[in-house]
Design a protein that fits this description.
The protein has 15 helices and six strands. A two-stranded antiparallel sheet has the order 1-2. A hairpin with a 2-residue loop joins strand 4 and strand 5. Helix 1 runs antiparallel to helix 2 and helix 5 packs across helix 12. The longest helix is centred in the first third of the chain and has 31 residues. The relative contact order is 0.16.
């Protein structure tokens, strides 16, 4: 298979998927950086309604992959699903440039995302044979691509939107989606072939995954849903606080509020290499941390990040909080995020049978759907409580997720679970 030729020590297809994902995330985070400001400043929607729309949109964007994953596995194939989905998403992003089409544009992006999102990461696992040691680390590399796009998007789309008009920022996000589509089509020869659609349609889902594996994934899903209710506030209420509750001046320079959305992906890019090297060294000495326990540690670190915001906003006593504390929050939050989110995505992809890759990965995005919807509901409380109280509530939610994951980890029989992973990876 051509994908066995390597770039940077990995199959060439990983670079293609990395770049495709990077530009798709540029479009998503570019639009997300503008969305809540556009609703409150341009459309003049009240904060509670804007937060609910934000949560409902992100929830729908992660619900449609359930249907899209089934369509990709059983009828379209992954490649065709990605091309169709990316095209629909690009159209939706350009529609955002027209105020009258606002809700219809959000729906269009969510529909295209349903085909695109589950199929792309499921192709990452298809690049490697079952025994390839690089497979377990590929998703952290892939996750960096998400965050390069997320880093560039608020700087580019956010700056254009703030200075020249929100609609121009949305249009730039659409250009990013087109760039990702072009890269994917041009790199087809380096990607793994699709599973026979007839073989996928004939394969029974219920017998392809062990009952214990399904139970573990459901448990992880519940915990991550709770975690997402807190984590997804980064683009919602934390963004509103950056506008109204933070002193954004560095000397005489006012830092644009959308620039803070770039800190999280920037820190992902900076922290990931040394963190992966640390995990590699531990693995070499037989000290590999169980995936679910690693996720629990990540949720606990994110809880500490929100406690930091609660303390800094409470200490300000109604005055503006220094932007330094917001930057420090993003640093701590990102460190915790790297323990939980790439690990969770990698677990769902590794446990997926070959012929149900998109469908199983789509289940991870169903968790994101539930968490995003919860985040929209939680975010509606922002106008009714003090910032310090609200951030303390988010810390409590993240700590609850950590407790659930820790409890799940203690209940698991790791020898049987590892065997289940291998069995499903070979399916």
């Amino acid at each position: 298979m051509k994908a066995r030729a390597t770039w940077f020590g990995h199959p060439r297809g990983l670079t293609v998927l990395f770049l495709t994902n990077m530009w798709e995330q540029f479009s998503y985070y570019g639009m997300r950086a503008l969305l809540v400001y556009y609703m409150t400043k341009q459309l003049l929607l009240d904060q509670a309604h804007s937060s609910f729309v934000y949560g409902a949109y992100t929830a729908c964007a992660y619900f449609t992959p359930i249907l899209g994953g089934v369509l990709a596995d059983r009828w379209l194939g992954k490649r065709r699903a990605i091309v169709i989905g990316a095209s629909i998403m690009a159209i939706g992003h350009f529609m955002m440039a027209f105020e009258a089409w606002f809700y219809f544009a959000l729906a269009t992006i969510a529909l295209g995302n349903g085909l695109f999102l589950p199929s792309l990461p499921s192709q990452v696992g298809d690049l490697y044979s079952c025994g390839d040691a690089r497979r377990s680390w590929a998703f952290n590399v892939y996750y960096v691509g998400i965050n390069i796009g997320g880093f560039l998007a608020p700087l580019a789309c956010g700056t254009v939107g703030e200075l020249y008009g929100w609609h121009y920022g949305f249009g730039l996000a659409g250009m990013g989606m087109l760039a990702g589509l072009v890269i994917y089509v041009a790199g087809q020869r380096y990607l793994p072939p699709d599973q026979s659609r007839q073989q996928s349609a004939d394969a029974p889902f219920s017998s392809s995954m062990a009952r214990e594996t399904i139970t573990v994934l459901v448990g992880i899903g519940i915990a991550v849903t709770v975690f997402r209710a807190a984590y997804e506030q980064v683009g919602n209420t934390v963004a509103l606080w950056a506008d109204s509750g933070v002193d954004r001046y560095a000397g005489d320079f006012p830092i644009p509020m959308t620039w803070f959305q770039s800190l999280n992906p920037l820190f992902v890019m900076l922290i990931t290499p040394p963190l992966l090297a640390y995990w590699h060294r531990r693995a070499a000495t037989g000290q590999t941390q169980a995936p679910v326990r690693r996720m629990a540690c990540g949720a606990l670190i994110v809880s500490a990040a929100y406690l930091l915001l609660a303390a800094s906003s409470w200490n300000a006593s109604g005055a503006l909080t220094s932007w330094f504390w917001l930057a420090l929050f993003f640093l701590v939050l990102t460190f915790g995020e790297l323990f939980i989110l790439p690990t969770g995505l990698g677990l769902f992809a590794r446990l997926a049978p070959r012929h149900l890759g998109s469908t199983t990965v789509a289940a991870w995005f169903l968790v994101t759907f539930a968490g995003s919807l919860s985040a929209g509901i939680v975010g509606s409380l922002w106008s009714h409580v003090a910032p310090s109280t609200f951030f303390a509530l988010l810390a409590l939610l993240a700590a609850l997720a950590a407790a659930l994951l820790w409890r799940l980890n203690s209940k698991m029989h790791h020898d049987r679970f590892s065997a289940s992973v291998q069995s499903n990876a070979k399916a």
